[in-house]
Amino acid sequence: MIEIRKLSKIYNTHGTMTHALQDINLTINDGDIFGIIGLSGAGKSSLIRCINLLERPTSGEILIDDVDLTKLSSASLREVRKKIGMIFQQFNLLMNSTVYDNIAFPLKISKVPKREIEKRVDELLELVELKDKKYAYPSQLSGGQKQRVGIARALANKPDIILSDEATSALDPTTTESILNLLKNINKEFGITIVVITHEMSVIKKICDRVAVMENGRIVEEGNVIDIFSNPKTLVARRFLKDMFAELPEGILLDDRNQEEEILRVSFVGDSATKPIISYMIKKFNIDANIIAGTIDRIQNAVVGNLLIKLVGDKESISSAINYLTENKLRIEVLKNNAP
Ligand code: ADP
């Protein structure tokens, strides 16, 4: 388990202080794929680099299986780091070394015997489907292939954790998909905990179990991916989800000022059969319900959707209708209350 406690990071550049991380508290469970999303400058990269102490925190603790990395000697820290692999946006390969030597590099540093290195590298090449590129140089590889080498290298010492620093940001959508599938398979097959930082919700949606949203050096929202996708609370999370999150068309709030009405956001997860619930509600409570906007999406194996509905009717009926929707496990947010 990774536990981050009261983590702060201040950069001092020629006397100019940048508070890149402020009071970060986070628990990442073993075997999770944990996503950290935020706009550029939010502090994601600083955070992930603090996890393996590539960047020294200004204050706070980084505990991995109850050991506080900030208190370790350099020798102990080197040992712990062998169990934390890292992959990078720009791959960070040794350009003058072959694929074989790039993957073998961390094993040589760990003084693994040559025979074992050969065996391990062959296994890894098989895993990342690059057997035929063993003696190629990075310049002869595509971006996706370079990242596969990066992943094989990160796996060389059989890590418990992999940190992924925008690993797919430099790749096209198809290649991104195949790299994300590879990470997901590695997580499933070896139970490796993966921490992913990204500025793309599609990455979170595709592989993460949990997600933290960062803004200005803080975590502003955190939870299961499905919960956050179905009910984002902060503006920044909503913005990331804008394609999946129905918004009120401009001007709609000005409609029908004289009538009693409510505009609701109805969110649902799973196969909640919204249609019969809503048509039954209309009949039962004698109100009108107009669907203004809606989206529906599949996240991993769950269906997540949300609808904006305008209810028109007398105040009591609307209130009973809202209770009825809530009882039927739909999440309701009232966007507008025009009743006197
Ligand atoms: P993100 O990865 O979300 O883009 P970063 O962690 O890279 O965010 O940056 C967070 C803030 O810290 C930014 O204001 C950035 O300019 C600053 N920063 C990052 N690295 C350094 C550094 N090595 N020295 C000084 N400031 C830095």
Question: What would you note in describing this structure?
Answer:
There is one protein chain. With 340 residues, this protein is α/β, with parallel strands linked by helices. The protein has 2 domains: 2-232, 3-Layer(aba) Sandwich (Rossmann fold), CATH 3.40.50; 260-337, Alpha-Beta Plaits (2-Layer Sandwich), CATH 3.30.70.260. The protein is 34% helix and 31% strand. The chain has 11 helices and 14 strands. It has helices at residues 44-51, 74-82, 99-109, 114-127, 143-155, 173-190, 201-207, 225-230, 235-240, 274-285, 315-327; strands at 2-13, 16-28, 33-38, 59-64, 67-68, 84-88, 161-165, 193-198, 210-215, 218-224, 261-269, 288-299, 302-312, 331-337. The strands form 3 sheets. A 6-stranded mixed sheet has the order 6-7-8-3-9-10, with helices on both faces. The chain has a 4-stranded antiparallel sheet with strand order 2-1-4-5, covered by helices on one side. Helix 6 links the parallel strand 7 and strand 8 (193-198). Helix 3 crosses helix 4 (114-127), helix 3 (99-109) packs parallel to helix 5 (143-155) and helix 4 crosses helix 5 (143-155). The longest helix is centred in the middle third of the chain and has 18 residues, at 173-190. The radius of gyration is 25 Å and the shape is elongated. The model has no long low-confidence stretch (mean pLDDT 91). Bound molecules: adenosine-5'-diphosphate (ADP).
